[in-house]
Design goal:
This protein is α+β, with helices and mostly antiparallel strands. The protein is built from four helices and twelve strands, in the order ααβββββαβαββββββ. It has a six-stranded mixed β-sheet. Helix content is 22%, strand content 32%. α1 crosses α2. β2 and β3 form a beta hairpin. The protein has one domain.
Amino acid sequence: MDFFEKSLNDLKTERKIFHSEDDLKLSLALKLKENNPKLNIRLEKPIDIEMIDRSDKKSIVRAPIDMILIDENNHTYPIELKYKTKKLSTIYNGETFNLTKHGAADIGRFSFRKDIYRIEKYKTNNDNCPRGYVLIVTNDKSYFQDNVFDKNNLDKHFSFHDGFLINKIDSGWNYEKINQNKYSFTDKNIWVNQQLKIHWTYKKELFYKLDLQKDYRVKWNEYSKIENNEFKYCLIEI
Protein backbone atom coordinates (compact mmCIF):
# COMPACT_ATOMS: atom_id res chain seq x y z
CA MET A 1 0.00 0.00 0.00
CA ASP A 2 1.48 3.35 -1.01
CA PHE A 3 1.24 6.63 0.90
CA PHE A 4 -1.86 7.83 -0.94
CA GLU A 5 -3.87 4.66 -0.35
CA LYS A 6 -2.83 4.65 3.31
CA SER A 7 -4.11 8.20 3.82
CA LEU A 8 -7.35 7.33 2.03
CA ASN A 9 -7.82 4.29 4.28
CA ASP A 10 -7.10 6.40 7.36
CA LEU A 11 -9.64 8.98 6.19
CA LYS A 12 -12.30 6.27 5.91
CA THR A 13 -12.16 5.75 9.67
CA GLU A 14 -12.58 9.46 10.44
CA ARG A 15 -14.91 10.84 7.78
CA LYS A 16 -17.68 8.58 6.60
CA ILE A 17 -19.49 11.25 4.59
CA PHE A 18 -18.68 14.64 3.04
CA HIS A 19 -20.76 17.69 2.30
CA SER A 20 -19.25 18.24 -1.15
CA GLU A 21 -16.36 17.47 -3.44
CA ASP A 22 -14.44 20.40 -1.92
CA ASP A 23 -15.02 18.94 1.54
CA LEU A 24 -13.58 15.61 0.38
CA LYS A 25 -10.66 17.32 -1.31
CA LEU A 26 -9.68 19.37 1.72
CA SER A 27 -10.15 16.47 4.14
CA LEU A 28 -7.96 14.20 2.06
CA ALA A 29 -5.31 16.91 1.66
CA LEU A 30 -5.17 17.43 5.43
CA LYS A 31 -4.86 13.69 6.05
CA LEU A 32 -2.07 13.40 3.47
CA LYS A 33 -0.22 16.27 5.14
CA GLU A 34 -0.74 14.78 8.60
CA ASN A 35 0.68 11.43 7.49
CA ASN A 36 3.44 12.94 5.34
CA PRO A 37 4.56 16.25 6.92
CA LYS A 38 7.21 16.89 4.25
CA LEU A 39 4.62 16.90 1.48
CA ASN A 40 3.70 20.19 -0.14
CA ILE A 41 0.15 20.25 -1.49
CA ARG A 42 -1.36 22.43 -4.19
CA LEU A 43 -5.11 22.53 -4.78
CA GLU A 44 -6.70 23.48 -8.09
CA LYS A 45 -3.37 24.12 -9.81
CA PRO A 46 -4.00 25.12 -13.46
CA ILE A 47 -2.03 23.33 -16.16
CA ASP A 48 -2.02 23.33 -19.96
CA ILE A 49 -2.86 20.04 -21.70
CA GLU A 50 -3.26 19.34 -25.39
CA MET A 51 -6.70 17.96 -26.15
CA ILE A 52 -7.92 16.43 -29.40
CA ASP A 53 -11.54 16.36 -30.47
CA ARG A 54 -13.26 13.78 -32.65
CA SER A 55 -12.62 15.82 -35.78
CA ASP A 56 -8.88 15.62 -34.93
CA LYS A 57 -8.70 19.30 -34.06
CA LYS A 58 -6.02 19.98 -31.45
CA SER A 59 -6.15 22.69 -28.82
CA ILE A 60 -4.29 23.64 -25.66
CA VAL A 61 -6.73 23.65 -22.77
CA ARG A 62 -5.90 25.32 -19.47
CA ALA A 63 -7.69 23.69 -16.55
CA PRO A 64 -6.90 22.88 -12.92
CA ILE A 65 -5.72 19.59 -11.50
CA ASP A 66 -7.65 19.00 -8.27
CA MET A 67 -4.57 18.25 -6.18
CA ILE A 68 -0.83 18.01 -6.79
CA LEU A 69 1.44 16.54 -4.13
CA ILE A 70 5.13 17.49 -4.06
CA ASP A 71 7.56 15.41 -2.00
CA GLU A 72 10.97 16.35 -0.60
CA ASN A 73 12.65 15.14 -3.81
CA ASN A 74 10.44 17.43 -5.90
CA HIS A 75 8.49 14.48 -7.29
CA THR A 76 4.90 15.40 -8.13
CA TYR A 77 1.77 13.29 -7.81
CA PRO A 78 -1.33 14.67 -9.59
CA ILE A 79 -4.76 13.67 -8.33
CA GLU A 80 -8.23 14.13 -9.78
CA LEU A 81 -11.20 13.57 -7.49
CA LYS A 82 -14.92 13.13 -7.97
CA TYR A 83 -17.67 13.05 -5.34
CA LYS A 84 -20.91 12.04 -7.03
CA THR A 85 -23.96 11.79 -4.82
CA LYS A 86 -27.62 10.95 -4.86
CA LYS A 87 -29.97 12.84 -2.59
CA LEU A 88 -29.44 12.14 1.10
CA SER A 89 -30.38 14.07 4.22
CA THR A 90 -28.96 12.66 7.42
CA ILE A 91 -27.38 13.49 10.75
CA TYR A 92 -24.07 11.76 11.40
CA ASN A 93 -22.10 12.29 14.61
CA GLY A 94 -24.30 15.26 15.40
CA GLU A 95 -23.63 16.96 12.06
CA THR A 96 -26.32 17.52 9.43
CA PHE A 97 -25.57 16.49 5.86
CA ASN A 98 -27.81 17.40 2.93
CA LEU A 99 -26.42 15.83 -0.21
CA THR A 100 -27.80 16.81 -3.59
CA LYS A 101 -28.68 14.57 -6.48
CA HIS A 102 -26.04 15.07 -9.16
CA GLY A 103 -27.59 12.76 -11.75
CA ALA A 104 -26.25 12.91 -15.33
CA ALA A 105 -24.27 9.72 -14.82
CA ASP A 106 -23.55 9.54 -18.56
CA ILE A 107 -21.54 12.77 -18.34
CA GLY A 108 -20.05 11.57 -15.06
CA ARG A 109 -18.73 8.45 -16.76
CA PHE A 110 -17.26 10.48 -19.61
CA SER A 111 -15.63 12.84 -17.11
CA PHE A 112 -14.05 9.94 -15.22
CA ARG A 113 -12.30 8.81 -18.40
CA LYS A 114 -11.28 12.40 -19.09
CA ASP A 115 -9.67 12.58 -15.65
CA ILE A 116 -7.60 9.48 -16.45
CA TYR A 117 -6.61 11.03 -19.78
CA ARG A 118 -5.52 14.29 -18.13
CA ILE A 119 -3.44 12.56 -15.43
CA GLU A 120 -1.75 10.42 -18.10
CA LYS A 121 -0.92 13.58 -20.06
CA TYR A 122 0.44 15.31 -16.97
CA LYS A 123 2.62 12.30 -16.17
CA THR A 124 3.95 12.16 -19.74
CA ASN A 125 4.79 15.86 -19.72
CA ASN A 126 6.52 15.81 -16.32
CA ASP A 127 9.62 13.66 -15.88
CA ASN A 128 9.45 14.13 -12.11
CA CYS A 129 6.02 12.47 -11.85
CA PRO A 130 6.28 8.80 -10.73
CA ARG A 131 2.51 8.25 -10.73
CA GLY A 132 -0.86 9.91 -10.39
CA TYR A 133 -4.35 8.97 -9.22
CA VAL A 134 -7.99 9.29 -10.17
CA LEU A 135 -10.46 8.83 -7.31
CA ILE A 136 -14.23 8.80 -7.18
CA VAL A 137 -16.36 8.41 -4.05
CA THR A 138 -20.11 7.95 -4.53
CA ASN A 139 -23.34 6.66 -3.05
CA ASP A 140 -24.90 6.49 -6.53
CA LYS A 141 -25.17 2.79 -7.36
CA SER A 142 -25.48 3.52 -11.07
CA TYR A 143 -21.72 4.04 -11.21
CA PHE A 144 -20.56 0.84 -9.55
CA GLN A 145 -23.49 -1.49 -10.33
CA ASP A 146 -24.90 -0.50 -13.70
CA ASN A 147 -23.28 -2.21 -16.65
CA VAL A 148 -24.25 0.35 -19.27
CA PHE A 149 -22.00 -1.45 -21.75
CA ASP A 150 -24.22 -4.53 -21.80
CA LYS A 151 -27.29 -2.30 -21.69
CA ASN A 152 -26.02 -0.71 -24.91
CA ASN A 153 -26.62 2.79 -23.54
CA LEU A 154 -25.47 5.97 -25.26
CA ASP A 155 -22.54 6.09 -22.80
CA LYS A 156 -21.79 2.33 -23.01
CA HIS A 157 -18.11 2.86 -23.85
CA PHE A 158 -17.60 5.01 -20.76
CA SER A 159 -18.91 2.45 -18.26
CA PHE A 160 -16.69 1.81 -15.26
CA HIS A 161 -18.81 -0.57 -13.19
CA ASP A 162 -17.06 -3.03 -10.89
CA GLY A 163 -14.78 -5.44 -12.77
CA PHE A 164 -14.99 -3.58 -16.09
CA LEU A 165 -11.91 -3.17 -18.27
CA ILE A 166 -11.58 0.40 -19.48
CA ASN A 167 -10.24 0.04 -23.02
CA LYS A 168 -7.43 2.37 -24.00
CA ILE A 169 -9.13 3.04 -27.35
CA ASP A 170 -11.94 5.57 -27.01
CA SER A 171 -14.88 4.28 -29.04
CA GLY A 172 -16.87 7.41 -28.25
CA TRP A 173 -20.58 7.84 -27.69
CA ASN A 174 -22.81 4.99 -28.82
CA TYR A 175 -24.77 6.80 -31.51
CA GLU A 176 -26.72 3.64 -32.32
CA LYS A 177 -28.93 4.73 -29.41
CA ILE A 178 -29.77 8.08 -31.01
CA ASN A 179 -33.52 8.47 -31.55
CA GLN A 180 -33.63 8.86 -35.31
CA ASN A 181 -37.18 10.19 -35.12
CA LYS A 182 -35.73 13.23 -33.39
CA TYR A 183 -32.24 13.39 -34.91
CA SER A 184 -30.78 12.91 -38.36
CA PHE A 185 -27.19 12.36 -39.46
CA THR A 186 -25.92 15.16 -41.69
CA ASP A 187 -23.29 15.25 -44.41
CA LYS A 188 -21.04 17.00 -41.87
CA ASN A 189 -20.95 13.79 -39.83
CA ILE A 190 -23.01 15.17 -36.96
CA TRP A 191 -26.42 14.43 -35.49
CA VAL A 192 -28.87 17.36 -35.45
CA ASN A 193 -32.51 17.60 -34.44
CA GLN A 194 -35.35 18.97 -36.53
CA GLN A 195 -34.46 22.52 -35.48
CA LEU A 196 -30.89 21.86 -36.72
CA LYS A 197 -29.51 21.93 -33.18
CA ILE A 198 -26.45 19.76 -32.70
CA HIS A 199 -26.74 16.79 -30.34
CA TRP A 200 -25.32 17.63 -26.89
CA THR A 201 -22.49 15.08 -27.18
CA TYR A 202 -20.85 17.21 -29.89
CA LYS A 203 -20.44 20.19 -27.59
CA LYS A 204 -17.22 21.41 -25.97
CA GLU A 205 -15.37 18.88 -23.83
CA LEU A 206 -17.91 16.11 -24.49
CA PHE A 207 -16.53 15.97 -28.03
CA TYR A 208 -12.97 15.21 -26.91
CA LYS A 209 -11.36 12.00 -28.09
CA LEU A 210 -9.87 10.32 -25.04
CA ASP A 211 -7.53 7.56 -26.21
CA LEU A 212 -5.53 6.30 -23.23
CA GLN A 213 -2.04 4.87 -22.94
CA LYS A 214 -3.20 1.55 -21.46
CA ASP A 215 -6.24 -0.42 -20.34
CA TYR A 216 -7.43 -0.07 -16.73
CA ARG A 217 -9.25 -2.71 -14.70
CA VAL A 218 -11.94 -1.18 -12.46
CA LYS A 219 -12.33 -2.23 -8.83
CA TRP A 220 -14.84 -0.66 -6.46
CA ASN A 221 -14.28 -0.85 -2.70
CA GLU A 222 -16.46 -0.06 0.28
CA TYR A 223 -15.96 3.40 1.72
CA SER A 224 -18.72 3.64 4.34
CA LYS A 225 -22.35 2.89 5.16
CA ILE A 226 -24.67 5.65 6.33
CA GLU A 227 -28.15 4.41 7.23
CA ASN A 228 -29.23 2.55 4.07
CA ASN A 229 -26.71 4.36 1.89
CA GLU A 230 -23.58 2.59 0.75
CA PHE A 231 -20.64 4.76 -0.26
CA LYS A 232 -18.02 3.14 -2.46
CA TYR A 233 -14.83 4.36 -4.06
CA CYS A 234 -12.82 3.54 -7.13
CA LEU A 235 -9.12 4.41 -7.24
CA ILE A 236 -7.16 4.25 -10.49
CA GLU A 237 -3.39 4.53 -10.26
CA ILE A 238 -1.79 6.03 -13.33
